[in-house]
Amino acid sequence: MNGKVFPVGDTCVLYNDIVRRNCDKPPQEKIVTLIGLGMAAVAAPAALSIIGCGGKSGDGGSSAPADSFSVTSTPDATSHAHSVTIPLADLATPPANDATYTSNGSHVHTITLTQQQLTDINSGQTVSVVSSVSEAHTHTWAITKP
Length: 146
Prior knowledge:
There is one protein chain. The protein has about 150 residues and is an alpha+beta fold. It has two domains: about 5-55, no CATH class; about 70-145, no CATH class. About 25% of the residues lie in helices and about 25% in strands. The chain has helices spanning about 25-55, 90, 115-120, and strands at about 5-10, 10-15, 20, 70, 85, 100, 110-115, 125-130, 140-145. The chain is globular. The chain starts with a strand and ends with a strand. The relative contact order is 0.12.
């Protein structure tokens, strides 16, 4: 039955039991149409997920408390991003040891900033840092003080 269309009244039953109306297209076009719809069904939630993360790298975000700022990573190959919240106190008085921040999301990544990197961010420079590996991928953050 591979790829065949069987007319049933005014509907068509495709080989994978999907029922479609209007059997006037050749079977190949119908299958391509269904594949295209399937891709759209997968892509739309991913796009909404990216939009839902909000913000761009270094934009300060809107979900951080008043005494901190949020930075969103660049999307990776899986087209998703994460955010971390950095307390403004860490910029004003950087800890002597490295500071580690944990991202949001269904899986988490951590980024670590040195005392010098925090000082550089506080002075207006942009610092780029790569996260820890989680679910076989990393993210990059370009951090700028808002």
